[in-house]
Design goal:
The protein is an alpha/beta fold. The chain has 2 domains: about 170 residues, NAD(P)-binding Rossmann-like Domain (Rossmann fold, 3-Layer(aba) Sandwich); about 120 residues, N-(1-d-carboxylethyl)-l-norvaline Dehydrogenase, domain 2. The chain is built from 14 helices and 9 strands. The strands form 2 sheets. Strands 3-2-1-4-5-6 form a 6-stranded parallel β-sheet, with helices on both faces. Strands 7-8-9 form a 3-stranded mixed β-sheet. The longest helix has about 30 residues. It is globular, with a radius of gyration of 20 Å. The structure holds NADP nicotinamide-adenine-dinucleotide phosphate. The site of NADP nicotinamide-adenine-dinucleotide phosphate has 24 residues, from α1 and α4.
């Protein structure tokens, strides 16, 4: 019999991953889904094939019936709150898997709390934009006790993701340490693209000409973000794909880790200052790609292209 799965947190990432779990996860029971704003869970359940999911009305209800509980929520406070609520019940023998991007100390703390309550814990942060979550193309980073990680693998490569980075047997915080450092590459990429496109416009090269080079030289995420910039997607969508607050949380973690380790990430500091401008201009609807708008403003151009 396949384990009973539950998924907590149906944001941009969670919704796409759940779709892949029910389609390819070889589940023999409906996936239990829970979200703080329940309507999101109801809407997702209605969009999935009939009988493939059930909506839980509380964290406790989701956890009590599940063997493996995945969490994917906004930030450190959110996941701590979720796990603390979960651990109020009997969790003996259950396995918690956190896919949120959080500080490695938070991850190690979650592992200690779960293990202290007789449960297992695996960290499984993911790389990839929401579109990759929907298409099952994420990269999953797995860390925690070997036997626990083995129980999670069947839901990663070929289901929610296209590949895994395997840190089996290492402390779970190593997975989120990689995730936080890895996300600085995304921030720096968006920063480089933004500056490049602004110079392309102001120097007379033209953004379409620069985009042609990017498509040829850097297919993949560079091209995807470049397209979001020149098409105006970075400011037009009401719901962000990679919310400014989440991007700033990741940058904060990276800068704190750098400071604690005796180094600095000056590129991240520059990116974060632009994210601050994005938040001022767009509020919570701001997206990491809107760094382009902030760099445009610095060059005397309008935020919106
Ligand atoms: N977006 C990306 O490109 C991306 C890529 C990789 C990893 N990640 C990481 O994956 C996680 C989820 O990202 P996302 O883009 O899916 O975020 P999102 O769309 O903003 O959704 C956030 C989710 O967390 C829930 N949440 C927030 N605060 C909560 C709290 N205090 N208690 C309970 N639930 C809470 C939200 O519930 P409500 O619906 O009630 O607000 C929602 O389900 C984050 O850690 C993010 O850094 C994101």
């Amino acid at each position: 019999m396949a384990p009973q799965l539950a998924w907590i947190g149906l944001g941009n990432m969670g919704r796409g991953i759940c779709k892949n779990l029910v389609e390819k996860g070889q589940l023999d029971k409906p996936l239990i889904i829970y979200n703080r704003t329940q309507q999101r869970a109801i809407d997702l359940s209605e969009s999935l094939p009939p009988g493939k999911s059930t909506v839980a009305s509380s964290v406790e209800a989701a956890v009590s019936k599940a063997d493996i509980i995945f969490t994917c929520v906004g930030d450190d406070a959110a996941v701590n709150e979720t796990i603390d609520t979960a651990l109020k019940g009997n969790v003996e023998g259950k396995l918690f898997v956190d896919c949120s991007t959080v500080h490695p100390d938070t991850t190690d703390g979650l592992a200690r709390k779960c293990e202290g309550a007789g449960a297992e814990f695996v960290a499984c942060p993911v790389f990839g934009a929401p579109a990759m979550a929907t298409s099952g193309q994420l990269i999953c980073v797995l860390a925690g006790p070997v036997a626990s990680v083995e129980k999670v693998k069947p839901y990663t490569k070929g289901v929610m993701g296209r590949a895994i980075v395997d840190f089996s047997g290492q402390s779970s915080g190593k997975a989120t340490l990689l995730k936080v450092i890895g996300n600085t590459f995304i921030l720096n990429m968006v920063e480089a693209l933004s500056e490049g496109h602004v110079l392309a416009e102001t120097s007379g090269l033209g953004t379409d000409n620069l985009h042609q080079f990017i498509e040829t030289m850097f297919p993949g995420p560079y091209t995807a973000y470049s397209t979001r910039m020149i098409s105006g997607d970075y400011y037009k969508r009401e719901e962000p794909l990679f919310a400014v607050d989440l991007a700033r949380k990741d940058a904060r973690h990276a800068m704190a880790l750098a400071e604690a380790s005796g180094t600095r990430m000056k590129n991240v500091e520059v990116g974060d200052a632009h994210l601050e401008q994005v938040k001022k201009h767009r509020g919570e609807a701001g997206d990491i790609a809107a760094i382009y708008g902030a760099v445009r403003q610095e060059a005397g151009l309008k935020f919106e292209n």
